[in-house]
Amino acid sequence: MVERTGSTNADLLADAYAKEGYWLVAMVQEAGRGRQGRQWVSETGNFFGSTLVELAPSDPQPQSLSLVAGLALIEAADVAFPGLPLMLKWPNDLLLGGAKAAGILMERSANRVVVGFGVNLALAPGIPGRETAALSEAMLPQAFAPLLAGSFARMLTLWRASQPEAFARAWLARAHPISTQLTVHGGTREVVTGAFDGIEPDGALRLRRGADVEIIRAGDVEL
Predict the structure, then answer these.
(1) Which residues are registered as beta bridge partners of 117?
(2) In sequence order, what are the beta bridge partners of 54?
(3) Cα(176)–Cα(172) distance, rounded to whole angstroms?
(4) Is 144 exposed, middle or buried (0-12, 13-18, 19+ CB in 10 A)?
(5) Contact at 8 Å (CB) between 221 and 183?
(6) What span, in angstroms and rounded, lies between the C-alpha atoms of 23 and 153?
(7) How far is CA 165 from CA 66, 187, 204, in A?
(8) What is the distance between the alpha carbons of residues 182 and 175, in angstroms, rounded to a whole number?
(9) Partners of 96 in the beta sheet?
(10) What distance in Å separates the CA atoms of residue 194 and residue 214, rounded to the nearest whole number?
């Protein structure tokens, strides 16, 4: 754990000596990033941490690591904050009562994938057009870190040992229900709407639009 850094993801990805299982957690993060290059608002008292996965030829498809990250995060939050109405939103958000409480950013270089977590523990940052929530100001980042690290290690082992379809079903059990109406914003500013039809074994979104199902591998989702 460090007192201050720019981005835990960037630091860990640049560290050629870091090995799988290593975590970097910062009390203050000054240049955090969200998906599609957006700024991550890093409020003091929240959790900012990243870990490293080293891909092996026998591993499942790397993009399905997003399922590992989501399940690890919600499992750790269940332990830390029992009874909260938590839910996963495709592709990488943790919701509390429909409001965003945490996000995940994965970045890859060769066979190394850094998985970064930003969790609103103490404060919910104001984000125009989005509802946000904080989990509990009573939980300190240094107390949440070992819970998340333990959950992630367990989920990573299960990911490598399970059939991809089974792992996808485990993620679905904690996600927004099938048939939930979604609006998906693509990276090219394309906007499509449809009904949630589950996910593919590699974690891709299935969006039902009339009689057809569209497979979406990248985008932001509104419920």
Answers:
(1) 49, 104
(2) 112
(3) 8
(4) buried
(5) yes
(6) 11
(7) 14, 27, 12
(8) 13
(9) 86, 99
(10) 9
- Identify the helix (H) or strand (E) that includes residue 1: none
- Give me the pLDDT at residue 118, please: 94
Kindly state the average pLDDT of the residues 182-208: 88
CB 121 within 8 A of CB 134: yes
Structure tokens at 44: 């003091």
Tokens, residue 19? 């090995």
| Residue located via tokens 């367990």 | 154
Q: Is the Cβ–Cβ distance between 43 and 125 less than 8 Å?
A: yes
* CA trace torsion 59, 61, 62, 65 (10° rounding): -90
Q: How far, rounded to the nearest angstrom, does the alpha carbon of residue 119 sit from its chain's CA centroid?
A: 10
Confidence band for 35, pLDDT divided at 50, 70 and 90: low
Q: Which comes out higher in pLDDT, residue 73 or 124?
A: 73
Identity of residue 4? R
